[in-house]
Amino acid sequence: MNQKAKILGFAFLLALVGCSSSSTTLNVVRTDAGTEGTGGAGNSIGGSAHTGGAVSNSGATGISGGVSSAGHAGTGGSNTNAGAGGQTPISSGGQTSIATGGQPGTGGQTSAGAGGLTSIPTGGQPPIATGGLPPATGGQPPIATGGLPPASGGLPPASGGLPPIATGGLPPATGGLPPASGGLPPATGGAPPWSPTSFPGLVLWLNGDASVSADTASLVSTWSDLSGNANDATAPADAAKPYWLTADLGPANHRALEFSAANYLNLPDSASLQFGTADFVIEVVARFSNSNECNLFGKRGSSTQTGFQLLANGGGTGRMGALLSTGVNLSTPASGYNNNVLHVFGLRRTGMTLQIRVDGTVVISQTFTGTQDASMPGVQPFIGWQLTGDVAEIIGYKGSLIDAQVGKMETELKAKYQL
């Protein structure tokens, strides 16, 4: 070997080992950055892992170039690989540059960085990488394959949930409560409609729709009392018989008894119709057209007798009048009642006051003194004396009724005859 060859060989050996006396320069393996994936099935490989630069030979410990950085992860494909950390240069006395994996891809399965190769210096400290964290490939399993079970393994499908209500729910309605027919009675079976028998003291009830005895010519012989007191009204002779109208009285088409000047009916002189000095109420549903004074209902034969009377045209044509014994004589201030229009005419004694009432309103009253007996024993009550008109209903009470009861009765009568 010539001298020149010896010199070149020695220089080569020095090049291999000579740098250990000052600092160790590690070869850098550079990973090439792949193109950032934007979709599709390809793998996007992280960017270049920056490795340490050359170490100065001045004897100072060269510090490697820092942490190798991964490139951006792919945003699309099925697998996104983090940057391959590259080889990690470790200085003999300096800090260790640790390769870091790239950020995982936002889509698809993610593989961690491979952690890179570790260069071991010949005379330096043992590399940290060999005793550090395990490589990324031994970390968490890929989320896509090792994460939560797929949706098909979650809650059971709807068909496996609760049973359908229609078939497995409550029993059908037919198996529930009994039908309405077995419950409370219908509204028609509630409180009975009002009747004159609803109030105490009823002594007379003559109703033109019922309990009328008439011949084939509709001439009435008996108008039967419905109060239970047998105070039936009868015609004293054939010439006195009124005519039984056939459902043409007013808009409600109720039946009534029609009187002419020669027609009238008598009632028995019973104890129940001898009112004495007690309270009483008489209600007469009627209409009239004559102009002379006549009797709707009363128990009195002359002006010198005791008893009572409810008069049509009393005190003047078209007015309503009343008499009680010999001391009370009333006449309504208004006239015009003789217009053949149906009304509810009332005569009421309450205490020491006598009232004339028309359609539920007190039109005149008078307070009196003395006993004013209304009994007049031996004289029969009578209906329609010299009347030209029709009488549909008469109701009489012996004894006291409160205002609400009298008002209720008059309201019911007005409703019945649509007044």
Concise overview:
The chain is mostly beta strands and about 425 residues long. It is about 10% helix and about 20% strand.
Question: Poorly predicted ranges (pLDDT <50, ≥5 residues)?
Answer: 10-136, 141-148
**The top level CATH class name of the largest domain:** Mainly Beta
Number of domains: 2
Number of strands: 19
Mean pLDDT rating: 71
Structural class by SSE content: mainly beta
Note the overall shape. Answer: globular
What's the order of the H and E elements?
Answer: HEEHHHEEEEEEEEEEEEEEEEEH
What is the count of DSSP helices, taking H or I runs of 4+ residues?
5
Helix content: under 10%
Give the termini separation.
154 Å
CATH architecture assignment name of the largest domain: Sandwich
Range of strand content: 15-25%
Give a quick account of the main beta sheet: strands, pairing sense, barrel closure.
Answer: 8 strands, antiparallel
CATH topology of the largest domain: Jelly Rolls
What Rg, in angstroms, do the CA atoms define? 62 Å
Textual characterization of the structure:
- With 419 residues, this protein is mainly beta.
- It has two domains: 17-137, no CATH class; 200-416, Jelly Rolls (Sandwich), CATH 2.60.120.200.
- The chain has five helices and 19 strands.
- The strands form four sheets. Strands 3, 7, 8, 10, 15, 16, 17 and 19 form an eight-stranded antiparallel sheet that branches.
- The longest helix has 15 residues, at 3-17.
- The chain is globular.
- The termini are far apart.
- Residues 10-136 and 141-148 have low confidence and may be disordered.
